[in-house]
Amino acid sequence: MSSKQPHDGRKARRTTTSLRVLGRARGAVRNATLIGLAIVLVLAMATGGALANGHAKPNATGSSYQGSNHVASRGGPGAPPASSARFTLEFVDAEIADVFQALATQSGVNIAVSGSVTGKTTLRLRNVTLEQALTIVTKLNGYDYAWVEAAYVVGTPEEVRAMRVADLRTSVVVLQHIEPEVAQQVLSKMTPEVTVSTQKGSSSILLLAPEASLAKAERTLAQIDVPSRPSAPTTELVRIRYLKAAEVRDMIAAALPDVTVQEGPQENSLLITANGKQWESVRSLISASDVAPPPSQAAQAYYQVKYTSPQELQKTC
Questions:
Q1: What is the reported pTM?
Q2: Of 50, 80, 90, 115, which is the most buried if we count CB atoms within 10 A?
Q3: pLDDT by residue (tens digit) across 79-99?
Q4: For the chain, how many structural domains are there in total?
């Protein structure tokens, strides 16, 4: 009996050790499981936070997730144009409005900028989508944007929140006779509640306003966007300084046959009859041609002094 006791003790110790090892293994598995769950939870919270903050994250196909903030603000019947195009922008101390204009030009999408959007910015963006660029530029400079029917509207966060998107309408008007800047100045006085956006090199303007104000702005444009009436002809006496009046008369007659020109009553002068636009051309032609000759072409003449001395004349010149 006594010879079996050491054997039983060793067996008991081995059993105890195995239980301890098993207990540690189970503890390690439990800890690993908890750590894994914690990682999943952190990732889920981070993903949820990113989506809640409106971040755009491209997927493998190049499309982007629309942040919930901007999706909620854009509502209405229109929707932002789906595009996978990407852009590269680089600006140094540039006007913020010029940045949005560059985005509109490159993307071909209408972007209306509020008059409260001012200041300068410096940025360098590569391979970004239009929405990513809009989000970066607006957030960087304390502004916000929203999609309204046919255009992105950029303004202060208060303006964007205050806009009742369902009540706003957009209209693109192609001007035929007046410059977009002139139309913008007139509308700023006649319909200040209408947001007017222009693009360099384009004869069209983008209007954003409630339907009633938009109709008023369009009526105003229809009244002022008309062919200009030629002004009544006027006659003026023009002194020619360096050329001969007859030479200038012949040049005007050849370049502007509808202008009446004849030699004037004073020495080396012309009587010219023209309307407003014709006068602009006449003055441009005279200012370009009637200039002092270079010193190498200066003429010399000799005069015989009869009543005074050459020295006295030299003092008076």
A1: 0.36
A2: 80
A3: 677 778 898 989 999 999 999
A4: 3
